[in-house]
Each structure stands twice: as C-alpha cells, then as structure tokens.
Design brief:
With 989 residues, this protein is α/β, with parallel strands linked by helices. 19% of the residues lie in helices and 19% in strands. Among the domains are: 42 residues, no CATH class; 292 residues, Orthogonal Bundle (Transferase(Phosphotransferase), domain 1). It contains 16 helices and 53 strands. The N terminus and C terminus are likely disordered. It is globular and about 105 Å long. InterPro entries: Kinase-like_dom_sf, Leu-rich_rpt, Leu-rich_rpt_typical-subtyp, LRR_dom_sf, LRR_N_plant-typ, Plant_LRR-RLKs, Prot_kinase_dom, Protein_kinase_ATP_BS. Belongs to the protein kinase superfamily. Ser/Thr protein kinase family. Its EC number is 2.7.11.1. It is a single-pass type I membrane protein.
Length: 989
C-alpha cells in the first residue's frame, strides 16, 4: 500500500513539474542542490548547477568517478560563498575530497563531523568559529587545513586519533592553551603548521621529534620558550623549518647539519645565542636561511656560504670576522642582509658576478675596501645599502648601467671621486644617499633622467660647480640635501617646479647672487628651508611668506640686505635664523620677542629692544619719549574713567575666568598670532560645535579673524590629590608628542593649556567638519565617489604616519568618522589621536575600569577579552570607517538589531549581494573601485587581529585601486630599513 502511494506521489510531482526539469538527476546531484540552497552565492559561482541535468559531473567544482558517476571531489574555493557549512555534503557517500577554502563559511564544525569518509578537507580562509573537538570522528582524514579562521579553544588531544593524517594546518586562528604533546603520535604527519596562534607561553613539545616523516614544521609566533628540543635531531626529512618570532633560547644545535633535505630555515626574532653550527656543507639543499635578530656570535662559517643559497639573512646579531669569499660563487644568491653586526674586511671582489643579486644590505658594520665592480653584473640589483662602514675608492662605473637600481645608500663611508654619469640618471632610482663621504665633481645635468627620484642626499662631501637647471625636472623630489659642499653659482629658478619638495638644505656652500626664483610661492609644501652659510645677497624674498607650512627657516651667514619683509609674519616658525647678514630696519613685531633673541644678531642695521641689537629710536629718542609721555597723559584720564566703569561691570566675570586659569601653563608648538587668554574668553556655550566622551569642542573666532577649534578635555578630577603632579607631567609629555607631529593628513595642534582644573587643546579649524557629519548630514551630496576615495586615502596616510613614522609609534585609540576632519578643499586629516589616552589618565582612579578605549561600533572584537589596544585595534576601527564610506551607513543603527555595521555588511553581502551594500547615492560607474575599497575594509575588520594588514599595507592596497602617485617615507635615514617599503608615508606639514 505504501509503495503504491509513493509511486502515485512521484507521478503527481512529474505532472506538476516544469517542462525543463529532469527527474533523472542522480541522488548525488540532489544532495548538491540541497547544499546550494543553504549557501548565498552573490557571484553566481554555482550557476552551472542546473537541476535539469541528469548528472552533476559537469557542474563547476564537481569531480565524479568515471564508472559510477558518483561525486568523489568538490572544489568550490574562491567562490565567495557564505552561510553555514552545508550538512548535505556529508550525505555524498563517495565524497573523499572537499575544498571550500577562501569563502565566508561562518558556522561551527559540528556538522562537518558527519563527513566521516573524507580523506581531504580544506576549509581555510573562512569565518569558522568554535572548537574543533568534533573532528576526531574523521578517522580517514589525510589532509586537514583550517587556517585563517576564528576557531577557539585548545587543540584537542583527540586529534591524535586521526592515524592517517599527513597534513595538519591550523595557522592564524585563536587557539589557546599549549601545543599538545599527543601530536607526536601522528607518525605519518608530513606537514604540521600551527603558526600565529595565541598559545600560552611554553616549551616546544619534545614529542614532536617523533614525527620522523615530517617535511614542514611551521611554528612561528606561537609563544614558544626554551631551547630547541634535542629530539628534533630525528626530523631528518625536514624541508621547511620555521620557528621564528618566538622566545627560543640556547644555541642552534650542531645536529641541524643532519637536515640534508631542508631548503628553508627561519629562526629570526628569537633569543638564540652562541655560534652558527659548523659542518653545514652537508645541507646542500638549503636555499633560505634567516637567523636575524638574535644574539649570535662568532664568525660566518665558510661552509654556509658555499651552499647554493638564494637568501642569507644574519642581520642584527653580534657576528664578527670577515664575509667568506665563497658567498660570491653562489649561483642563486638574490638577497644578502648582514647589517648591524661587527663584520670587518672587504666584500668579495667578485660579489654579484655569479649571482642574480637583488638586495644587499651590509650597513652598520666595519667593512672596508672598494665596492665590488661587478655587483650588478646580472642587472637585477634593486637595493644597494652600505651605510655606516669604511668603504673607500670610487663608485664603480658599472653601477651607472644598473638600470634596476631603486635605492642606493652609501652614507658615512670614505668613498671619493666623481659619481659616475650613469648613476645620476638611473630611471628607477627613488633614493640616492651619498652623505658623509668625500665625493667630488659636479652634479650631472643628466639627473633629469632619474624621474622617480624622491630623495637626493648629497651633504658633507666635496661636490663643486653649480646646481644644474635640470634638477627642476624632478617633480617627485621630496628632499634635497646638499649642505657642506663647494657648490657655487645661483640657485636654479627651475626648482619652483618641484612641487613635492618638503625639505631643502643647501647650507654651507658658496652659492651666490640674490634669491630670486620666480614663482617661489609654488613651493607650498616646504617645511624646512636652510640656505645658511652661503654668499646670497639682495633682499629676503617677501614670497617666503607664502610658505604657509614652513616650520624652519635659516638664512644666516649670507649677505642679505634691506628690511625683513613683514610677510614673514604669515608663517608659524618654530625656528628662524637671519643672523649675520646686512639687514636693516625694524624687526617685524611678531618676532621682536625673547624667543627669537638669537635670530637676528650680527646685523648692525637692525634695531630692536632684543639683546645685541641697536635701539630703534636713535638721536630722537628723547623727543619721542616726550611725545609718548604727553600722549599717555592725555589718554590716561579718559582711559581711567572708562576703565573704572568697565572694570566694575566686568570684574566678577574676569575674576571668575581667571580663577580657573591662574595656574594655567600654555605651551605652543607653532608661532601664534593670538594669546591663550583671548581663547579662554571665548569658551562659552554659544561657541560649542561638538561634544564627545573626551570633552567639548568650541569654534573660536579670534580678533585677528583667525578661526581655531578648542577641545576642552573632560574626565579631569575636580579634587587635587597626591598624584596630580605626576598626572600633569604625563599630560604634558603626551601633548609634547602630539605637538611635534607634522603631516599633511593630521590636524595641527597649535598650543595647549594645562592648569589645575582645565586642559585645553587648540587645533586648526576644519570648515567641513567631520566625515561623520558629511555622511549623515545635509552635505552628503558633496561626497561623490572620487571625493570619498580621496578622503579614505588621506586618512589612511595620516594613520600610516602615526603607526610607522613616529618614534615611538602612536596608537590613535579612537579611530572613527567623527575623528576624521575635512577642510574646505576636502583634504582629510586625522584628529584626536592620543586624546582618549589623556582623558583616561586624567580620570584614572576608582572609576578607571569604566573607561573604554574606542567608540562603540569601532572597537575591535579582541578588546573584549584583552582590554588592550594596539595598532591592529586602530586598523579594525579604520576598516569600519571604510565600510561607512562605502555604505553611507553609521556604525551603529537600530536596523542592525544587536549587530553592528561590520556584521550587517557581511550579512548583506551573503543574502543580497554587493549592490545592496553600496550607498545608492553613488554612481554605478565606480562599482569596481568601490568593490575593491570595500574589500580593503573587510580585510581591516577581520576578527583575527594578526590577519589584519598594517596601515602601510592598507595605504598600498588603497592606492592600487586606481592610478595615483605612490607615497614615500621621509626620515633621517639612520635606520637600515629607511625607505624599505615604497608605500611609506610622506611626512609633511
């Protein structure tokens, strides 16, 4: 009876089915369709999964048995699928291989345990959560890759019950506890990869030495301590060993030389000591050896250099002796980094002759002799870094033919002679650093050929002749330093074309003629200008007053004459030196104070009340005094009467105002054209333009027409306690750091006030307000996609500077769209960095535990259990800002229910697709760019902090979205990694 009813039911379904639907689809096909129904497929990756087919064997990602047509393998990697793991896949009886890597599978692994016949399982780079205990039932597994997820808990001992396992990859998850010793029972294991997990500090399990078949061991950044176990001597089949970024101590064992199959050894960033092992000649397969940043001593073994190495990194140790000549005979050597050791002797004369050298850095050693003539013989050398050694002789002519060079750093050596003509015109060169040598000859006119040059550093040499006009063609040049040479002639007028120039230092030369380069005002990014100790004459150009970001101006020891132009008062200079010239007349009022008392000495014609200068009144001073006295007496009566009346009505208000500021201590970081007292008078409720957790923000219009923003910090204890002095010192130290920041994408701090009851920060005013105001307010129509893209790149560069170019690095702690301000030209600047920390310190005490680092909707998930913030916290918050820009939505909204914008975007992408996520007010022609920027935002908001990119990487990814100029770091060059990455940020004011 039942069978008849079932057949009738099937017949009924057939009658109702559409004409194109086949009822002959195999059972495996039906299971796959059921699995598809559980997943979101915004990219239509599974469009070929057609229910009308008779078999799924031609569907995308499906592999079938040739005879039975049963599904045996499924590969849907990189398909942008999202949703829970589809349990229907485990009903495929012949399925032995499953690859769902690089998707957005976001469930636990409980249902995966039903796939008991799997041999191969790859679920890497998804959003899986929870523990992995349930996988112990997959006893047939040979390959298991769960890397790049959010899996938690301890690695279970039960994994040892997978006797056939050959690959175990759990990299980049959130596993805690320790590495279980029972993994040593997986004797068939060939690849064990557990790196980048927050394990509890502990030793490397000795039992791992039982894995005699192991070929890959990847335990980087696992909180490992103690020595390398001697049982590892049994791992003779190792091909790749990575124990980097731990706290491993002891020596590199002698038995390492038994690893005759190993191609890669990574031991960097540990605390290893002692000498490198001898007998390494047996390791004939070794290609990459990195033991940098340890405490290694002794010499570099010749046997190591005789190996066919591709990369040798021994930098930042305490190695001594010479570099064995055998290293030059390596046919594969591409990278050689030995900087910051105590090495002596010469570089092998044939270094580079037999090797495709790409990077060499032997800085901060005691090398001597000449630069090898054939170091770029293979034409692949990009970075030549030899700074702080004792190299002598000339630069080889062959380097002038090395078109691949991007960075040449030779500072602080004993090199001499002329720079080869070809070196001046290398087409890919970004940095040419020749400081502190004995180079002579001219700066070549061929320098215009180095069109990518951003830093030209020639100071403290013996260069002579004139600066060629062709230097003005270097429109990417950020820094030009040629001080302490014998340069003569005029400063080329063509230099006005160098619109990216930030730092110009031509001091201590013999440059002459008057300073007249037409259009000088176009150099509007210059922050430091030093032309001192030359023979320049004529008037000080009034056009210098257009250098609005100029921070330091030194024209001392020249022959300038005439009066000091009043236009210099437009500048906010922290350093000014016009001493030892032939200037005359009055000193501009802004500079006639004690701060600049040494800025004008040695100018007999100048007059002022400053020490060392003559009095401006001369012979007529008595008459002028009398005239002044009469004026005073005439006005005194009027002023006295009016003053008494005014004082009567204002006394109480002024007294109250002064009471709060009688202990005020004002600190300025730029030259100001207003007083602190004027600022405080205007702090009233009518001028409040913003309120936040850190305090109120006032818009203050000063008497000179200038507008500033004043933040009055809250959280200041009302009652003075025994720690108030130390807290005041902490505040002053924090603000001192903030005040020194100079970058085009960071809001400038003019000055601050720290009193017993008040803490004020005075910033430049940003007319367009915050990004949050623009996105959610009436001006949203102004934010087309190109403007939004510009804003996000600007903000990224500001944060990049804080994270990577400040010493020490600065963590913002409260990145949000409210703290990204926009000026009248829609240049975005980061604001309030460090303020959250100051408020927390100001309010610390019994309530300090209630102070949250960050703002709701922007706080990184790990903060909930670590209560710590770092650069990765900022990056998560910045990712939320990116999502705001793309979606036009706020970070928190009732529509999200209990979720936030990050989870809303993930859910919307899963169920509705990309078009539902993008702000509908944006032009669809930018869809591709918007999608790429959204991808960066999703990358930044990864729930696993270690998988988030650095801000340097974020800037690079954002700039790769469209064709825009690259940004380059500028610092003093003392670090061997100076300009290491082309994505460094430009440090400008």
């Amino acid at each position: 009876m039942f069978s008849r009813m079932f057949l009738f039911f099937l017949y009924f379904l057939f009658l109702l089915s559409p004409p194109g639907l086949s009822l002959s689809l195999t059972q495996d096909g039906l299971f796959l369709l059921q699995a598809r129904s559980c997943l979101s497929d915004p990219n239509n990756s599974l469009s070929s999964w057609n229910a009308a087919a008779s078999t799924p064997c031609r569907w995308r990602g499906v592999t079938c048995d040739h005879h039975s047509a049963a599904v045996t393998a499924l590969d849907l990697s990189f398909s942008f699928l999202s949703g829970p793991f589809p349990a229907a896949l485990c009903r495929l009886p012949s399925l032995s291989s499953l690859n769902l890597s690089y998707n957005l599978i976001n469930s636990t692994l409980s249902t995966v345990s039903l796939c008991r016949f799997l041999l191969y399982l790859d679920l890497s780079q998804n959003a899986l959560v929870g523990p992995i205990d349930s996988l112990a039932t997959l006893t047939s597994l040979r390959y298991l890759d769960l890397s790049g997820n959010n899996l938690t808990g301890e690695i279970p001992e039960s994994l040892a019950a997978l006797p056939h396992l050959e690959t175990l990859n759990l990299v980049s998850n959130l596993f805690t506890g320790t590495i279980p010793a029972s993994l040593g029972n997986l004797t068939l294991l060939k690849r064990l990869q557990l790196a980048y997990n927050p394990f509890k500090p502990g030793p490397i399990p000795r039992e791992l030495g039982n894995l005699g078949n192991l070929e890959t061991l990847y335990l980087a950044l696992c909180n490992l301590e103690g020595p390398i176990p001697d049982t590892f001597s049994n791992l003779v089949n190792l091909i790749s060993l990575d124990l980097s970024q731990n706290s491993i101590t002891g020596h590199i064992p002698q038995w390492f030389t038994r690893f005759t199959r190993v191609t890669q050894i990574e031991l960097y960033n540990n605390s290893l000591s002692g000498k490198l092992p001898r007998g390494m000649s047996k390791m004939t397969s070794l290609k990459l050896f990195d033991a940098s940043r340890n405490e290694l001593t002794g010499t570099i073994p010749t046997e190591l250099c005789e190996l066919p190495l591709e990369s040798l990194n021994l930098n930042e140790n305490k190695l001594e002796g010479i570099l064995p000549g055998a290293i030059a005979r390596s046919p594969n050597l591409s990278e050689l980094k030995l900087f910051s050791n105590r090495l002596i002797g010469t570089l092998p004369s044939d270094l580079g002759s037999n090797s495709p050298l790409n990077q060499i850095d032997v800085s901060f050693n005691r090398f001597s002799g000449e630069i090898p003539a054939n170091i770029c013989r293979r034409g692949q050398l990009e970075q030549l870094i030899l700074i702080y050694n004792s190299f002598s002789g000339e630069i080889p002519e062959s380097l002038g033919k090395c078109k691949s060079l991007t960075r040449v750093r030779l500072r602080n050596n004993n090199l001499s002679g002329s720079v080869p003509e070809g070196v001046w015109s290398l087409p890919r060169l970004h940095l040419l650093e020749l400081l502190e040598n004995y180079f002579s000859g001219h700066i070549s006119k061929g320098i215009s050929g180095s069109s990518s040059l951003s830093n030209l550093l020639l100071s403290n040499n013996r260069f002579s002749g004139s600066i060629p006009q062709e230097i003005g063609l270097l429109d990417s040049l950020v820094e030009f330093a040629a001080s302490n040479n014998n340069l003569s002639g005029q400063i080329p007028g063509s230099m006005v074309k160098m619109k990216q120039l930030v730092n110009l230092d031509l001091s201590c030369n013999q440059l002459s003629s008057d300073l007249k380069f037409g259009g000088i005002g176009y150099l509007n990014k210059v922050t430091d200008l030093n032309l001192s100790h030359n023979r320049l004459d004529g008037n000080v150009p009034s056009e210098l007053g257009r250098f609005l970001v100029l921070n330091s101006l030194d024209l001392s020891w020249n022959n300038f004459s005439g009066e000091i132009p009043l236009q210099l008062q437009n500048l906010r200079l922290s350093e000014l030196n016009l001493s030892y010239n032939k200037l005359s007349g009055d000193i501009p009022p802004l500079y006639a104070n004690a701060k600049y008392k040494t800025s004008f000495i040695g100018n007999p014609g100048l007059c002022s009340h400053l020490p060392g200068l003559s009095n401006c009144y001369g012979r007529n001073k008595n008459w002028r005094y009398m005239w002044i006295l009469w004026s005073i007496f005439v006005l005194a009566g009027v002023v006295f009467v009016m003053g008494v009346a005014w004082f009567y009505f204002r006394y109480r208000k002024v007294k109250k105002l002064k009471k709060g500021f009688y202990t005020s201590s004002w600190k300025s970081f730029h030259k100001l054209r207003f007083s602190g007292f004027e600022v405080t008078k205007l702090l009233n409720e009518a001028n409040v333009i913003g309120r936040g957790a850190s305090g109120k923000v006032y818009k203050v219009v000063l008497s000179n027409g200038e507008v500033v923003a004043v933040k009055k910090l809250s959280g200041v204890p009302a009652k003075v306690d025994e720690n108030v002095g130390s807290r005041k010192d902490e505040f002053d130290a924090e603000v001192e750091t903030l005040g020194r920041i100079r970058h085009k994408n960071i809001v400038r701090l003019w000055c601050c006030c720290n009193s017993g009851d008040h803490k004020l920060l005075v910033f430049e005013y940003m007319p367009n307000g915050s990004l949050a105001d623009l996105l959610q307010g009436s001006k949203k129509s102004l934010l087309d996609w190109p403007t939004r893209y510009k804003i996000v790149v600007d903000a990224a560069e500001g944060l990049c500077y804080l994270h990577h170019d400040c010493v020490p690095p600065i963590v913002h702690r409260d990145v949000k769209s409210n703290n990204i301000l926009v000026d009248d030209e829609f240049v975005a600047k980061v604001a309030d960095f460090g303020v959250a920390k100051m408020v927390a310190r100001a309010g610390q005490g019994t309530e300090s535990m209630s102070i949250i680092a960050g703002s709701y909707g922007y706080i990184a998930p790990e903060y909930a259990y670590t209560m710590r913030v770092n650069e990765k916290s900022d990056i998560y918050s910045f990712g939320v800002v990116i999502l705001e820009l793309v979606t036009g939505r706020p970070p928190i909204d009732p529509e999200y229910s209990e979720n936030d914008l990050v989870k809303w975007v993930s859910s919307a992408l899963e169920h509705e697709g990309l078009d539902h996520v993008i702000d509908p007010t944006l032009d669809s022609k930018h869809r591709e760019e918007i999608s790429k920027v959204l991808s960066v935002g999703l990358h930044c908001t990864s729930s696993i902090s270690i998988t988030r990119p650095t801000m340097r990487k974020v800037v690079k990814m954002l700039r790769e979205v469209t064709t825009v100029p690259k940004c380059t770091s500028v610092n003093d060059g003392n670090d061997p990694s100076y300009h290491e990455d082309s994505s460094h940020c430009i440090t400008e004011d």
